[in-house]
Specification:
This protein is of the alpha+beta class. It has 2 domains: about 230 residues, 2-Layer Sandwich (Beta Polymerase, domain 2); about 80 residues, no CATH class. The protein has 17 helices and 7 strands. The chain has a 5-stranded mixed beta sheet. Helix 1 packs across helix 2, helix 2 runs antiparallel to helix 3 and helix 16 crosses helix 17.
């Protein structure tokens, strides 16, 4: 296993994580003037700027970081609030459409947290609206969305999604078939849970805070999904905001109000170790300390923190993990089937994917050339990943 580089030195990291996760009685280190800008930059790179601004407020930020850094973080909170309100407005529109065609919906991720009563607007970013629907009635909702101005994305869909739809003013939404990697009960090889199974098991609760007549997963299921999606499905992706997933777990009460055992009961046995590491890390951060592997520290929590920090801050580390990420899968058919499907999607790409990856092309001929050269480009990227891995292994890792 590739060992992540050492954590950044100095008090900027301690302050940033304490400001984002520590309880009210936990100490927060004082920052030197030279470290204030570094702390604000670090908060932004970890995706924690809106959360810190929401927790501390403008006056305390200005007192601890200075006016410029405080303005930067409060500006991030304002942007996050605007985007969050837009996602919830999209949810209300979708709820009316779904009610009109008799399709029940359950909100996931940002809207799911809001539906469960977690105060997320302005506290975390949101890219789009995610919802889980019964597969048998999903087509009716997709047609209603089309009549309302949503267009279906031309990009190939992951196995767990029915469709991605985009509206010119309301933004994007993703219709989910199931929760990847979340069977809804701790059984080996259990199929990922669908809407009907979750509702029958009492794992979907009313989400009137978003829209009347809709549902959201109960906190334990939201935590299980956040863990699998953020720390397993995208666990080796440098492009994913992993600290936002950690923050979601903290806001859901893990491990103080929401016992890890409640979450573990909804996950396959293989997820027990990541869940324990995440719970231990959050417990340490809530107390205002960073876990250490030595001496007498929590090795699993420290390893998880080092891994997530390296993904966010060290380009070589993220590049080195890209090859391994191909084989990580939460697809319904298992790891092998998921990896084979991912390899096929990597090598055989559509015209829409060509433009998404390589930018606009001058014509169909240029698109075809990109498609034909795709295997060679993947080999180039794989070699770059191996070079990054070698560089990391040669770099001293003294702590």
């Amino acid at each position: 296993m590739l060992r992540p580089p050492p954590r950044p030195a100095g008090t900027a990291l301690d302050w940033t994580l304490a400001a984002a996760f520590a309880g009210g009685a936990a100490p927060r280190p004082a920052l030197a003037a030279a470290d204030a800008g570094a702390a604000a930059e670090l908060a932004g790179r970890l995706g924690l700027g809106p959360r810190i601004a929401d927790r501390l407020g403008r006056e305390r930020l200005a007192a601890e970081l200075g006016d410029a850094a405080a303005a930067r973080l409060t500006g991030a909170r304002t942007q996050a609030a605007a985007r969050g309100l837009a996602v919830l407005e999209c949810a209300r529109v979708v709820a009316r459409l779904a009610h009109g065609v008799d399709v029940p919906v359950a909100w996931l991720k940002f809207a799911g947290l809001a539906g469960a009563g977690v105060d997320v607007v302005g506290r975390r970013g949101a890219a789009d609206l995610d919802l889980l629907v019964p597969e048998t009635s999903a087509r009716r909702l997709a047609e209603a969305l089309g009549e309302c101005g949503f267009t279906r994305s031309r990009m190939p869909q992951p196995e767990h999604q029915i469709a991605t739809c985009v509206h010119p003013t309301l933004g994007a939404l993703e219709l989910h078939r199931y929760l990847p990697g979340v069977p809804g009960r701790a059984r080996r090889r259990a199929r990922p849970a669908r809407f009907e199974q979750l509702r029958a098991a009492g794992l979907l609760a009313p989400a009137d805070a978003v829209a009347a007549g809709t549902f959201a997963p109960v906190p334990a299921l939201l935590a299980a999904h956040a863990l699998v999606h953020g720390l397993e499905q995208h666990g080796e992706s440098a492009d994913y905001p992993h600290f936002r997933a950690l923050a979601d777990l903290a806001d859901l009460g893990l491990p103080e109000r929401l016992a890890a055992a409640e979450v573990a009961a909804l996950l396959p046995p293989g997820a027990a170790a990541p869940l324990a590491a995440a719970a231990a890390l959050l417990d340490a951060l809530a107390a205002g300390r960073l876990p250490r592997a030595e001496p007498a520290g929590d090795a699993a929590a420290a390893a998880l923190l080092d891994h997530l920090l390296a993904l966010a801050l060290d380009a070589d580390y993220g590049a080195a993990l890209k090859l391994g990420a191909v084989w990580r899968s939460t697809a319904e058919g298992g790891a092998a089937a998921g990896a084979l499907g991912r390899l096929r999607r990597l090598f055989v790409i559509s015209a829409a994917e060509v433009e998404a990856i390589y930018g606009p092309q001058p014509g169909r001929g240029a698109v075809l050339v990109r498609q034909l050269l795709r295997p060679f480009d993947l080999v180039r990227r794989a070699l770059a990943s191996l070079r990054s891995r070698r560089r990391l292994r040669r770099t001293p890792r003294a702590r």
